[in-house]
Amino acid sequence: MISRRHFLRLAGGLGATGISTVAYGFGEPALRLRVKRYDIQPPRWPAGFKLRIAVIADLHACDPWMSLERIESIVERTNSLNPDITVLLGDYVAGHRKVTRFIPCSEWAPVLAGLRAPLGVHAVLGNHDYWDDKAVQRDGKGDTIARRALEATGIPVYENEVVRLSKAGRPFWIAGLGDQLAWLPARRFRPVRRIGVDDLSATLARVTDDAPVILLAHEPDVALRVPARVALQLSGHTHGGQVRLLGWSPVAPSGRKLAYGHIRANCDVVVSGGLGCSIMPFRIGVPPEIVLVTLGGAGAAVS
Asked: Between 50 and which of 68, 230, 251, 296 could a Cys-Cys bridge form, CB atoms 3.0 to 4.6 Å apart?
């Protein structure tokens, strides 16, 4: 039988472990930053065509968790990876209320303008970029403040639009899908009777040749409908569950299959763990990350 002294020691040890775990979870969003690398050869991507894509997702700009200084460091780290192209996958605005300051779009967008890549920086919006814009939610239409801020700095934002690019004479398409959860529940009836602004069929119909397609979609959910015509889908939104234990996310807003990492569906899908937080500024087991995808190279994910 365990003695009272041993019981108190055990309880104290467990309590200290619990406190340290909670402290770590709250500290991780603001302190840690890693680069997650994927080397992928999708069936629809030409062999020998090497393309390096830097992915930034779910910044959720706010003090103290995602300050302007923090965003500057993310920009610097991303540029140091020397990507061919950089993509931004939405949710730039804060996703929770546990903040000391909400950073306005007019401040974080110019910092993101410091991103550099030979084939440019390309963006889509996320659900929080829509939800945070009261005028757009009220009217059921219009460009969000986040979109206008990004475009004012020269970063194009795609909503069911495509652009044809090329590297060393080899063409490919970037297709940016509109957000799938753009309208808050109260706005899904009058005047808006839909959930999102996404139109996958119309987006892909804008692709006019057989060059490979990279789809940018904030929420990964659309992967179940993406045709094999698409070589790669890049998504964020899930934050990897924000808590991930032994490769398992207890909470997965897009389902556990699409919670995080490299997934093979109709096309190859990479879901970023993102950089910021939603609901609570807390992460365990899935630290903030910049993703670097290298197409045209076979291999497993490397942290």
From this structure: 296
Query: For residue 171, is the peptide bond before it cis, meaning its omega torsion is within 30 degrees of 0?
Result: no
pTM for the full predicted model: 0.87
Cα separations (Å) of 142 from 129, 145, 208? 12, 9, 27
**Chain mean position to CA 272:** 5
Amino acid type, 205: A
51, HSE (Cβ side, Cα atoms, 13 Å): 30
Phi and psi at 79, nearest 5°, equal: -60, -35
Residue 8 backbone phi and psi in degrees, to 5: -65, -35
φ/ψ (deg, to 5) at 280: -140, 145
Tens of pLDDT, residue by residue over 150-171, are 999 999 999 999 999 999 999 9
User: Would you call 284 helix, strand, or coil by DSSP?
Assistant: strand
